[in-house]
Amino acid sequence: MAVAIRLSRGGAKKRPYYRIVVADARSPRDGKYLEQIGVYNPLLAKDDEKRVQLNEDRARYWVGVGAQPSDRVSRFLDAAGIVEREARNNPQKAEPGEKAKERAEEKAAKEAEAKEAEEAAKAEAEAPKEEEAKAEDAPAEEAAAEEAKEEAPAEEEKKDEAADEEKSEG
C-alpha cells in the first residue's frame, strides 16, 4: 500500500485549517486516513509556534517506513529537521537552447562587423576632411609667415630711425 503524508482540509469557507495526516495515496484528500500527526493553520503569523504543530516521533516513524510527504508537508518536515528537502528549482531551465545561443553569437558577430565597418567608413570620411584642413592651414601659415617677414623689415627700419634720432639729439 502506497502511503502519503499530506494535508487534509477542514475549517469554514475562506477560513482554512489543515490536519497533517498519513493516508493511503488512493484515498480522497479529506477522506479516510491512517493517523493524524499534526495540524497546520495558515491564518496564523509565520513566526507563530501554533501555525504548524507536528508530532515529530510519529513523522519520523512514517517517513522511516516509506511514507512519501507532499511538497507542503516536506517543507514542514524540513523546518523540523526530520527530512532534508531537495530544492525543486532547476537553474538551468531558464538558459536558452543551443540553437538560440548560436543565433545570439551570430547576431553579436554581425553587430561587431557592422560596428567595425561603420568606424572604418567614419575614419575614411574624416581623412579627406583632415587633408583639406591641412591644405587650408598651409596657405594660411604661408601668409602668416610672409606677413611676419614683411613686419620684420618694417621693425628694423623703425629701429634704424629711432637710432638715427638718438644720434642727432645727442
From TrEMBL:
Q: Which UniProt keywords apply?
A: Ribonucleoprotein, Ribosomal protein
Instruction: Cite the InterPro entries for this sequence.
Output: Ribosomal_bS16 (IPR000307), Ribosomal_bS16_CS (IPR020592), Ribosomal_bS16_dom_sf (IPR023803)
Q: Which PROSITE patterns match?
A: RIBOSOMAL_S16
Q: Which domain of life is it from?
A: Bacteria
Compositional bias of kind Basic and acidic residues: 95-137, 146-161
**Region ranges (Disordered):** 81-170
Family membership noted in the UniProt record: Belongs to the bacterial ribosomal protein bS16 family.
Instruction: State the NCBIfam families in the record.
Output: S16
This protein is called what?
Small ribosomal subunit protein bS16
- Per the UniProt record, the source organism is Blastomonas marina
